[in-house]
Amino acid sequence: MDANATQRQLLSLLVRSEAIRVRKTPIDLPFWYTSGKPGPFYIHVERLAGDHVAGTLSRINQVLASTAEASERSPQIREIVLSAYRSDAGYQEAISLLSAAFTRMFPDLPAAISGGERRDWFFSIPLAQTLSIPHVYLYKNGTVWPDQPSMLQPRAKPVHVLHVADILNTGSSYVNHWLPALTAAGMTCEDTFTVAVRGQEGKNRLEERGVRVHTPLVMDESVFRDAEAEGLISSFALADVLQYFESPQAWTRQLLATCGEHILQREPELDTVQRSRLRTFVETDPYGLAAEFPAFFRRAREVLAVQS
């Protein structure tokens, strides 16, 4: 299977599993990003791990909350993830596609694959299992634990590890956690394989640090054009996304003009995270639109104050 075929099948899986979501009509609510800015699409790559991904994450959290050492936690996490993998055909299909892409990009397999707490593990663990490569567990507290503990022994040269991630956005997890942890453990990472890349910021940050980024799916205009051509998203959704890519500010201006009141009416439906991101948008006014839409920003502050 060539790279284009892999991308098409992976894209289809992402849309079918609602790992990629888009607005379907002009009055659909926007998706609120970590930055506190709204957008027309959202991607939850971990949804490729099956319908029960929330339950799997919950079981992983229980292990992480325990007082056990990493040497005990890591095998438990491995079994939780592989159990989910063995029980879900869609998850298996996704890993099969990713394995094909991985071996095409890396015909000489790396010494080990690393994955970071928590969502990376949905892909790094089954990929390592499928390819018979040792896996290195990276924890947010800086702990590193490989399947083969001998990898932690002092060496003349560092072990070259390839990091596998669910998605690359800003690259902050790499910079703040994964790369420093690997270095401290006597390992080095010069390549990363991520299921999807969203935007250039993370890619640029990693390449500045000597880490090459490899992915079967870049979330750019061409991907959404392909999705519309395949009947996976509507023509409205495509136009919505393309307008956003051309100018996030202009897209947000259009959103507030057509959907501002609707956003406020449905504010009670937002979860805590989404409400916090809406609050950040209103407080920081990242696109300088408050002067154009004073009624929206005034009402939003009133509504959010009631919900505080």
Question: Would you write up a description of this structure?
Answer:
This protein has helices at 3-16, 53-65, 70-86, 89-105, 121-131, 172-184, 201-208, 221-229, 235-246, 248-265, 272-284, 294-307; strands spanning 20-22, 31-32, 38-39, 41-43, 112-116, 135-138, 144-146, 159-168, 187-197, 212-214. It has 308 residues and is α/β, with parallel strands linked by helices. It has two domains: 3-43 and 222-307, no CATH class; 95-215, Rossmann fold (3-Layer(aba) Sandwich). The strands form three sheets. The chain has a six-stranded mixed β-sheet with strand order 7-6-5-8-9-10, with helices on both faces. A two-stranded antiparallel sheet has the order 1-4. It has a two-stranded antiparallel ribbon with strand order 2-3. The radius of gyration is 21 Å and the shape is globular. The model has no long low-confidence stretch (mean pLDDT 95).
- Element order, helices and strands? HEEEEHHHEHEEEHEHEHHHHH
How many distinct domains?
2
Number of strands: 10
Overall pLDDT confidence: 95
Question: Beta fraction of the residues?
Answer: 5-15%
Rg, Cα atoms, Å: 21 Å
Q: Are there runs of 5+ residues with pLDDT below 50, and where?
A: none
The biggest sheet amounts to:
6 strands, mixed
How far apart are the first and last residues' alpha carbons, in Å?
A: 52 Å
Approximately how much helix is present in the residues?
40-55%
Task: Please list the strands of the largest sheet in the order they lie side by side.
Answer: 7-6-5-8-9-10
Overall geometry comes to globular
Tally the helices.
12
Return the structural class.
Answer: alpha/beta
Keywords: Glycosyltransferase, Transferase
Organism: Alicyclobacillus macrosporangiidus
InterPro entries: PRTase-like, PRTase_dom
Protein name: Orotate phosphoribosyltransferase
